[in-house]
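Intended use. Records like the one below are meant for learning the mapping from a protein sequence to its folded structure. Do not use them to infer anything beyond what is encoded.
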Amino acid sequence: MVVVKKFGKVLALTLLISAVGAGQALAMDGTAIYVNDQYLRLDTMPYVSEGTTFVPLRTVSSALGADVSWADGQAHISLGGQDIVLRPNDKTAVVNGAAVGLSVAPVVQDGRILVPLRFVSERLGAGVDYADHIIDITPAAGSVMPDIPSVYANGTWQYADDSAEYIYLSAWDGVERINKATLEREVLAIPTDTGELDIRGFSVVGDKLYFSGDYGQSDRRSVLTVFDTLTGTSEYFDDGVFRCQVYRDWVYYLDTQLYNGTLYRVALVDGKASGEPQQVAKDVSEFWFVGDSLYWSSWGIKAFRMDLDGQNPERQTKVTGADWYDAGYYYTTGNGATHSTIYRYKAGASEPEVVYSWGRSSVKDLQVFGDKVYFSSWMSADDGRGHWAQYSGPLYCVDLDGENLRQLTDGKVLDYFVFGDILLYENQNSEWCVKRLDD
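Structure written out for the chain above:
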């Protein structure tokens, strides 16, 4: 597995944590969590209180392979013979039936239970390291790790996702994979019944690729396909599946490629779609996942957050499908028609914070990873015939505090993905390029 490079040269978090006095709470803005060298997206921001780092229980524990459940006002975490019970506002945990004292009690924040990171991780056999706005969690030796779903999908017809060893990039009619260690590229030969591919959604789980495509069918009834990269074989399952994404043992999909549709999910059992589809939401144009939450929007006009099964919907007034949500913040652009300023809203807040004022052109395609905001730009220019049009500009990144602006590409960028220390981007000639980001 490629070792993820860490961004930023800042004071180590261990020193920062030790400087926080008892009773104080410090939001860990811009802090990234990596589990087994894979970036973990969060829907609740970690914070430090009384010298203890708190993280969302289910997201972190599940990434370590633990089973997590909630019943009777308490959380149960089980992995490798360890059984942990935690209660909000209670400084006593129960580990394998024995009471164990905690220095600080778990808390509930924004509907999520946050727990002491080091206590839970080390009880599950994992190591924890803090440095440079990075929390590295290393699983116990021999642990069977689940895939941390990233589910990257930019644009209408281009999808990308990654596994431990590879980044996979899909276009309409093919799939390419890139070795994370060497950056070598190869095109995968994916067999189909008709010899055609028309990919309309894409997810990677371990050695299997899940995607939907109509294969030239006249009725445009897209089929869910599972391609095994080890055997080179394909299996076909449900039809009527468009823009599918795999997340936590479920395949989520829309029932139409055009306009808004109904969002469904169907369970994955032994890598295969199983059981009856469950309706999750209606009037959906885009959907995405962060931690334990499903977000969806309708044409970027209205957006909702809900549980993964579609329960407890909440209208999101500060986010659309074009925005980015990570670690408890919504990131968006504004400043009149130009959209040249990057803002972020704390969940539930009515007023934003300014992250960066670009000023030179419109910001587009925001993505946030750890302590960096990535964005490309649109620049208005005269085409020489007296007509003004917008043209794509280079890709940039800036720290969350608005410092250290960096230009990452020399030429224009039409689309891009960031996977750890690897940048994958489409240049002005519609060619996909790959490069490793420097420290």
